[in-house]
Amino acid sequence: MGLKKRSKVNPEFSMSSLTDIIFLLLIFFMLTSSLVIPNALNLNLPGKSNKNTPPSTEQPNIVSVSSSGKYTWNGSSVSIRDIESRVRDIKKSKGKFNLILSPSGTAPNESVVAIMDVAYRWGINATLVDPK
Questions:
Q1: What domains are there in the chain, each with its CATH number?
Q2: pTM, whole model, 2 decimals?
């Protein structure tokens, strides 16, 4: 008696569902990566300045961050609230100005980011110099 199997196992793999998932992931990552850019901080790095702008004759506003997280504004010790009020006052009187952020090499990241956050909230240009 010759009995044959009626169903054979098909060894082929269907790639159509896999390509659908890959295209959906590609679209998802493309959309989410374009939403990240507007939330970036307005921070300039030294050496990337525009060569057409003349050098400023006014005193630079330098904020230093020590290794213990203490702030100094042009050499005088200040708190983060003092920095925010000075930035607000200068922004209201002059409109546009530059802030130079000079952290210590061992300064806490939270202290440096707090200054960058103040600069971002008030819409001023902040330049981060290399840590000392």
A1: 42-50+58-128 (3.30.420.270)
A2: 0.59
